[in-house]
Amino acid sequence: MEIDHLVVVAETLEAGVHAVEEALGVTPHQGGHHPYMGTHNRVLSLGPSAYLEILAIDPNAPKPDRPRWFDLDNFQGPPQLRYWAVRAQDMTRAMAEAPLGMGHVAHLTRGSLSWDMALTTTGEMPYDGAIPALLHWHGVKASDLMPDTGFTLQRLLVEHPEIDDVRATWPRLTQIHNLEFHKAAAPHLRAEIATEAGLKILDGQLRLS
User: Fold this and answer.
1) DSSP secondary structure string for all residues of 110-160
2) CA–CA separation, 173 vs 134, rounded Å?
3) Which run of H or E residues covers position 180?
4) What is the DSSP string of 17-58?
5) Which residues form the Glyoxalase-like domain (predicted)?
6) pLDDT per residue as tens digits for the range 5-56
7) What pTM, to 2 d.p., does this model score?
8) 78-131 pLDDT per residue, tens
9) Do 79 and 202 touch, CB atoms closer than 8 A?
10) Where residue 15 sits, what CATH number does that domain have?
11) 68 DSSP assignment
12) How far apart are CA 84 and CA 121, in angstroms?
């Protein structure tokens, strides 16, 4: 498994894009719409195999008859780097190794992209998002189509009060080379991004240091 993408959730796509522009100094690329979930996105390459997704409810889409992914139905507040996703070559094996609560596997599309993804029954992710979403791309993956930004995801730090339980419930995550788990007082994601201007650190609340 590898880190596939990081997810910034926002009340509106415009707010999420503005927050990322302020934090990283670049404008995210055009994304698309997710009819199955009633959401839309913008994206930003983080190297040849990873990317940043800005995700929000699509105000022009019908409300789906299921909870939206990444708990967007209940999200309020400023844009946050709150979730992440890993991709697997073998979805059946990965689901067998994953913890309970990952839900069912659905086949999804956006434009020419096609993938399978585990969707929880509530839209929430286990352990407040310390456990990642799980997906498998069919053919071309999203990051293959994105213009190079000169940005590379160097490391993702996942923090949680019950981080030992997170590690124990899905041991294979600990084998991902650019991923670290740390115990902390509250759930938190921190992404270290290498750029031509030096290392940029993106925090949960999109603070930049």
Assistant:
1) ETTEEEEEEE-SSSPPGGGGTSPEEEEESSS-GGGGSPP-S-EEEEEEEEE
2) 11
3) strand 179-183
4) HHHHHHHHSSPPEEEEEETTTTEEEEEEE-STT-EEEEEEE-
5) 3-173
6) 999 999 999 999 999 999 999 999 999 999 999 999 999 999 999 999 999 9
7) 0.94
8) 999 999 999 999 999 999 999 989 999 999 988 888 999 999 999 999 999 999
9) no
10) 3.10.180.10
11) P
12) 18
Q: Under a CB-based contact definition with an 8 Å cutoff, are residues 53 and 81 in contact?
A: no
In a domain, 207, yes or no: no
Question: Which residue in this structure is represented by tokens 């094996």?
Answer: 93
From the list 90, 125, 105, 111, the residue with the least C-alpha distance to 9 is: 125
Q: State which residues form the domain around 146.
A: 2-202
Q: Is residue 208 part of a domain?
A: no
User: DSSP character for 89?
Assistant: S
Phi, psi of 155 (to 5 degrees): -160, 145
Residue 196 lies in a domain: yes
> How many residues does this entry show for the chain?
209
Our count of domains for the chain comes to 1
